Amino acid sequence: MRTGEVVLNKLCIFLADDHAIIREGLKSLINAQPDMHVVGETDNGRTAWLEAKALRPDVVVMDISMPELNGAKATELLKRDCPQTKVLALTVHNDQGYLNQLLKSGASGYVLKRAAAHELIQAIRAVAAGDTYLDPAIVSNVVGNYVRKQSPKEGLPHGDLSERESEVLRLIALGFSNKEIAAKLDISVRTVETYKVRLMEKLNFHSRAEIVRYAMLQGWLQDA
After folding, report:
1. pLDDT for 19-45, tens place per residue?
2. CA 145, CA 181: separation in Å to the nearest integer?
3. d(Cα 89, Cα 97) in Å, to the nearest integer?
4. Within the chain, what is the greatest distance between any pair of CA atoms?
């Protein structure tokens, strides 16, 4: 199913979930926002990939468990064909295996279906702006398990981060925007951007997914 309608000056959102009731609820919620509009929807992973590739929405809200192609594979194919489209995983699974799989596939965020409506809207806006969003429940539950099972130094790139660079990295991994980080640390947005450039150069990182994984392995998110 697809509408193909594009509304100027609004984020174009595509919905992929195999439950019609959930899609209808999401559509009503998203269309009620002044800056968003649902341009299409589908009930399986294969059409999610193909239709989103044709529509090129700003954000695809992607269920993980779907017929034909699961959400991770559909995300991988979509990011290969449309790297500018952001994918926000929406799922009932509070599990590190699914989180790792989706991040590797190119998803920019991961939200549980039990999350409040305002959290989903916040997550959509965050990933559309180029940020990474992890559901707070995942940060507190999944990441702690992940860190305990990994060696803290395993596979980590070398880099000599300052204390402030480490603070900025941790807040980026938690999904805060540059503006929010600036407010929390009482510094300017430009200074945040400078720290971000420096830390990514030191660690040879090229994406927020790499930042999230690094923070996980360091244990910086364990007590979030």
Report:
1. 999 999 999 999 999 999 999 999 999
2. 26
3. 13
4. 50
